[in-house]
Amino acid sequence: MVTGCVSKKQYAALDAQYKDLGQLYHKTQMELTESRAKVKSLEDMLDYERKNNAALKEAYAKLQASLDKSIAQNSQGNVNISKLVDEINASNRYIQHLVNTKNKSDSLNMVLTNRLTRSLSREEMKDVDVQVLKGVVYISLSDNMLYKSGSYEISERAGETLSKIAKIIQDYKDYEVLVEGNTDTDPISKPNIRNNWDLSVLRASSVVQALQNDYGVDPKRLTAGGRGEYNPIADNSTASGKARNRRTQIIITPKLDQFMELIDKAPETEQHSVDF
C-alpha cells in the first residue's frame, strides 16, 4: 500500500506539469489562429495582384490590337508610320512607368504594414487590425482600446499603441493620413453630442489631435472624418457585431497631388524603337 501511493509532493509536481501543458496548448492554438489569419490576408493580396496584372495585360492587348488595326488601315502610306510607332512606344513606356510606380507603392505599403505589425505586441494586436486594400493601408482600432468608456477622450491605454503608429507615419512623409470614426447603431445620449455622426467625428478628431500634439505628426498631412453608423463591417443585431463596428480607422494613402502629377506627365519620345 505504501509503495503504490503517490506522495503529495509528487502529486503537486504532476498537477503543475499538467497546468503548464494546458497553458502551452492554449498558446499554441492562439498562434495557429494568428498564422491562419495572416495566410488568408496574404492570399487576398495575391489574388488582388493577379487580377491587376490581368487588367494590365488586357490593356496592353487592346493597345497592340489598335496598332495592328492602324497599320492595316493605312497600308497605302496615308499615315506617317514613323510617327505612329513613336506614339505607340510612348504609350508602352507610360504603361510600364505606371506599372513600376504601382509596384513600388505596393512594396512600400507591404514594408509599412510589416513594420507596424512587428512593432505591436500580441495583446495590442487583439485591438488593432492592419490591412492593405487596393493600394491603401487601413489600420483599424477598437473603441475599447482607444477611448474612455462612452467618451471620445483618448485613454491612457491607447498611448503606447498610437505612438507606434505615429512612428510609422513619421517615417513615410509622402503619405496622407485620414482618421475616420465609425459607430454602431445604438443612439448616443451625452450632453453636447447630438448623434452618432457627432460622436464618430469627435473620436476621429481626438486621434488626429493626439497624433499632432503628442507625437509630432505634421497636421497638414492629417484629416479627421466620421461616418457614424453608416459604414458597418458586421451585423449590428449582435453585441459582437456592434463591437466590431465601433472602430476608428487610420487610412494611409499616397498624396493625391503627386499621383495627379504622375498621370499628367507625358513620357518622352524615342524614335523607331518598335520593329515590324
UniProtKB/TrEMBL annotation:
InterPro entries: Bact_OuterMem_StrucFunc, OmpA-like, OmpA-like_sf
Keyword Lyase: no
Positions of the UniProt region annotated as Disordered: 222-244
Start and end residues of each OmpA-like domain: 134-256
Residue ranges of coiled coil: 39-73
Keywords: Coiled coil, Membrane
PANTHER family registered for this protein in UniProt: LIPOPROTEIN YIAD-RELATED, STATOR ELEMENT OF FLAGELLAR MOTOR COMPLEX
The name this protein goes by in its record: OmpA family protein
